[in-house]
Amino acid sequence: MFRKLTLPAVLLAALAAPVIATAATVETEITDFSFPFEGPFGKYDQHQLQRGLQVFTEVCSACHGLTHVAYRTLGDATGPGLPEDQVRAYAAQYQVYDKTLNGGQGGDRPATPADYFGGSQFQGAPDLSLMAKARAGFEGPYGTGMAQLFKGMGGPEYIASLVSHFEDPPACAPPDFPGYYNKTFAVGGYPEECKNPDGTHKYPGSWVAMPQPLYGNDVTYQDGTDSNLQQEAQDVAAFLMWAAEPKLDQRKQAGMTGVLFLTVLSVLLYLTNKRLWAPYKRRKHEA
Ligand code: HEC
Q1: Interval between CA 22 and ligand 1 midpoint (Å)
Q2: Best exposed site among 43, 188, 191, 207 by fewest CB in 10 Å?
Q3: Where are the alpha helices (DSSP H) in the chain?
Q4: What is the predicted pLDDT for the residue at 6?
């Protein structure tokens, strides 16, 4: 049994070592924002999801797709919760290709709530449907898992940091270096001129192909919330977290019901056990 385990363990260690070594050379800045859906009792804030939808629609969707999300889910009570007529109106702004139109020739028609958001419009821009789960902002699911339970994996923190951590490039970078300097992005290009003699980076982050999308006051929120950069970044990150994990609230609720049920069951079993054995225990004492 042990011998069987050693080989894969050694292999894994050998495979993991270089990955950790390269990851460690790129420092990034990820802010630990606090989101209302964190922690065992956390829930999505419907107003925040609506604001995030607005930022996504007016800014991000110019480049990014959201192809796994259906328009109808915008009406979900645990999601943005838009009334039915608004969901219909939102979908109708977009055209979708329908191959049954024009007698089977195909053609475009306005989208209905049953259709899905469109794909990416900008070369190299990834689909954002699952991005909040694909990027962990903090150390992965190691340790006891308690940090993740209370603070989450950091996907939305990563997105909010990414879109708010654009800065002027450091002076060492050649002016024609491709991309935009970002302190959160780890895997982009990095100019040789900004490296130390030992190959480590002088500045955190790297150069990303996405131009800075948000500057603050890019949208006008209908609920009167101030649309500063931090607010917009967190709102769109919360919306993308909901897009990637729309059943978070329900799962947490089911988990809590389970814990509660098991607690009550444990107490009942303890009492039953005591009662069942009580006559025998008493007899022993008497003897
Ligand atoms: C002008 C087009 C454009 C706009 C607008 C835009 N992006 Fe991007 N985005 C890109 C491109 C291109 C990439 C790929 C960057 C790369 O791999 O270097 C990208 C990558 C990303 C990534 C993935 C980064 C990673 O770790 O791989 C996220 C998350 C993201 N964008 C979020 C957003 C959000 C949120 C908004 C709206 C506030 C937005 N983007 C607006 C073009 C855009």
Answers
A1: 23
A2: 43
A3: 2-25, 46-58, 84-92, 101-104, 131-134, 146-151, 155-164, 229-244, 248-286
A4: 53
